[in-house]
Amino acid sequence: MKQELPACPVEITMGLIDDKWKILIIRDLLTNNLRDMEKSGLVHREVFAEVPPRVEYSLTDTGWSLKPVLDSMVQWVNNYRELQKIAD
Fold this sequence. Notes:
The chain is an alpha+beta fold. It has helices spanning 9-17, 27-39, 61-64, 67-87, and strands at 43-48, 54-59. It has a single domain (9-87), classed as Winged helix-like DNA-binding domain superfamily/Winged helix DNA-binding domain (Arc Repressor Mutant, subunit A). The model has no long low-confidence stretch (mean pLDDT 83).
């Protein structure tokens, strides 16, 4: 019996491409990834002088430029799902 695919198209695509691309959301890892993305110019970090401290991240124009790539991944995995249904 085949394993049911996750609902998230990006998760399916990345899981099929390579294990090292799998997204694990662990606080420290998330922080490190956000810092790397900030250094790469993909996200903007804004710190608010509040108690408790608050930080917000938003996509930069460069980050938004990845949208067509991710949209293509979603389309690809939707096609892949259909092919898997036909193969079953």
